[in-house]
Amino acid sequence: DAPTIAALNPERGLVAGGNSVTITGTNFTPTSTVLFGTTSIPNASLTVVSDTEIAVTAPADTAGAKDVSVTTEFGTSNTASYTYGVAPTLT
What's the whole-model pTM score? Predict the structure, then answer.
């Protein structure tokens, strides 16, 4: 069966990227690949913990919502939204 995404934790991060994101869902396999928007997550930044959990490091991107998807040899998941923002500054 194709993978499905149930949730991202957290669902947002900084445009600089680098934070850990847990993807929960179903039917993840050891060969799963992850896309954040159009950015493919390199294998060094992705760990398939189980068939229901993937740990990734978010890549840098521009501000705004990006679709996240998981692809396995059985198909591509639904998408979940990850929102990039900038850190507040004091003036």
Answer: 0.93
